Amino acid sequence: MPQTNRQVRLAARPSGLPRLADWQFTNEAVPAAGPGEFVAEITHLSIDPAMRGWMNAGVSYIPPVDIGAVMRAGGIGRVTASEHPGFAVGDYVYGTFGVQEYAVSDGRGVLKLDLSLAEPTAYLGVLGMTGLTAYFGLLDTGRLKEGDTVVVSGAAGAVGSVAGQIAKIKGGQVIGIAGGQEKCRLVTEEFGFDAAIDYRLPHLRRTLRELAPGGVDVYFDNVGGEILDDVLTCLARKARIVICGAISQYNETQVRGPANYMMLLVARASMTGFLVFDYADRYPEAMAELAGWYRAGQLVSRETLVTGSVEDFPETLLKLFEGANTGKLILAI
Amino acid sequence: MPQTNRQVRLAARPSGLPRLADWQFTNEAVPAAGPGEFVAEITHLSIDPAMRGWMNAGVSYIPPVDIGAVMRAGGIGRVTASEHPGFAVGDYVYGTFGVQEYAVSDGRGVLKLDLSLAEPTAYLGVLGMTGLTAYFGLLDTGRLKEGDTVVVSGAAGAVGSVAGQIAKIKGGQVIGIAGGQEKCRLVTEEFGFDAAIDYRLPHLRRTLRELAPGGVDVYFDNVGGEILDDVLTCLARKARIVICGAISQYNETQVRGPANYMMLLVARASMTGFLVFDYADRYPEAMAELAGWYRAGQLVSRETLVTGSVEDFPETLLKLFEGANTGKLILAI
Fold first, then answer.
1. Average pLDDT in the B223-252 region?
2. Which helix (DSSP H) or strand (DSSP E) does residue A33 occupy?
3. Spatial contact of A258 and A226, defined as CB atoms under 8 Å apart
């Protein structure tokens, strides 16, 4: 067993895309488990767009990562030592363990994984926060009804690909928006959306209007920016826009607000933000439904796995903003 | 009785503020009432921010006013001739009669006024579309609850002044935003808001945070622009933003979208557009409640009356965008 725990800490608050100088690499002794604690060796780190927001100062839905602190990250780990009655050595667990090789935990907010159901990485994707985010955003905030026309941006990404699949399962007509022909192929062929639009091609608005002549009932937005403005012009009466993310804006020093927001009035539509954490008491029911679809082959889990060390985290994070991943981006340690 | 009906028609679609050249003044013969019709002499024209939108080409909630057509306007008239069993000479009526001295109507969408209850102009204000807009926007779209902290922009204006008064009646803590000290005085002293903020002074955001330390539960927005962005940073959890109008943007060729819209996610909040016309089947219940408050002195009707001819319409419309009016702006013919 190694004697050091390599860690990645936030060194400075980035302006624009995070640079290497915004990070600090440290080594500490591998922590020991005190009474009621366990130690996990991190095997997989979840790489999420939200991480960029956690690096900023200011008011948000959780406190920013402090300068000098280990970067916040969800991850999968294997228990290597335990003084906790609920966790045994060898258990696989999910938790917010941070960008480091070992984490000590008292078990709060930690989920034990059922590996008879799925491989560990699925618990970062369709069976994890990613799947839950898509589930509650679409069904609760988006109030999806059978027959709705649904548009999902970031459709080849982690949350988007699951949101579109759930919309199909629930009887929606689903159009994905993604960057590039290869991603669009994936969106229709692998994730089973009815159609995909490559936003890099011109005339997104016109294409969307052709594909959704009756207007868009639910727009699940992961990207913000120009695409949000385009979809705003194609809303059906009483449309629901679900604000899940705005990856196009996270590295902008000047955020682009949706100039077409008055279309909300024209369409009597709503734009609503949500956070998956608010649904913690309903995770079990959602997990059960997601797992059922997954076992039945109705829900495909797709991951982009980068293999390396925690020190590859800064570079791996940038892949998200380059749109280099399809499905869930994971750093396998 | 005069032989001519003076009219104001849309001559061109304006860019920015409407200019005199965007209008055309015509004279026609006073219309006659055919079977099932009546003729009304217009006594009061409703001057509304929404008129600016009706002058633009493109998709909206109603078709644009055609070039060459009499400008659309709500108004009060006195019936001067009738072949309609439901309307008698001398009746006062409200309808979308247009910017002209006489209108012929088959009675559809026309309301007969009860002058025992209120003077005619009140039917353009608290007892008319203005009051109904405030009522449904606040109570239905805004889902106002007793104890909510409510912010209303355009608080000294027609809809805003009524929205704030209704919020007080329903048990809200109400903060108005208006331009200038005189309007702010009116907002608190005449309309009974708990507080008013002069948006022309610096530090709107800070002042709002001091007045609403627990955050804003309902924001009734009439103005858009920078003020919307400021209020977005002060939302309470599960806040509802009601998009009623965006008068600050109506004459902009480049609309400013709310750059802080991701605060909807942080606050798990919603931003929803509505149109009063959708509530037509509930107008009677709302009118009854508004009339009750009005009779009881709980609801103050305030009007800015400009006296002139229909040809003063273009100039009167501009007063709205100068913020020259308090309460309902009316052109009395």
1. 96
2. none
3. no
Task: Look at A265 and B61 and tell me if their CB atoms are within 8 Å.
Answer: yes
> What is the C-alpha separation between B38 and A221, in angstroms, rounded?
51
Here the tokens at position B271 are 């931003």
Mean pLDDT of B167-191: 98
CB contact under 8 A, B249 and A243: no
Query: What's the sign of the alpha-carbon dihedral B174, B241, B74, B36?
Result: negative
Tokens 């977005």 appear where? B232
Q: At what angle do helices A204-211 and A225-232 cross, to 10 degrees?
A: 40
Q: Which residues contact B114 (CB under 8 A, 6 or more apart)?
A: none
Tens of pLDDT along A5-38? Answer: 999 999 999 999 999 999 999 999 999 999 999 9
Residue B315: what are its φ and ψ, rounded to 5°?
Answer: -70, -35
| Span A284-323, pLDDT tens digits | 999 999 999 999 999 999 999 999 999 999 999 999 999 9
Is the per-residue pLDDT at A199 higher than 90? yes
Residue B29: Cβ within 10 Å count = 9
Amino acid found at A231: V
Q: What is the pTM of this model?
A: 0.95
Q: At what angle do helices B225-232 and B204-211 cross, to 10 degrees?
A: 40
Distance of CA B255 to the CA centre of its chain: 20
CB nearest A261 (choices: B257, B265, B275): B257
Residues 6+ apart with CB under 8 A from A256: A224, A225, A226, A248, A249, B257, B259
Four-CA torsion B223, B227, B231, B233, nearest 10 degrees: 140
Residues above pLDDT 90, as percent of chain A = 96
Q: How far apart are CA A190 and CA A301, in angstroms?
A: 10
Query: Cα(B210)–Cα(A19) distance, rounded to whole angstroms?
Result: 37
Q: Find the CB nearest A273 among B233, B258, B269.
A: B269
Residues 6+ apart with CB under 8 A from B63: none
DSSP states along A312-327: GHHHHHHHHHHT--SB
**Cβ within 8 Å, pair B273-A258:** no
Query: How many C-beta atoms surround the C-beta of residue A14 within 10 A?
Result: 16
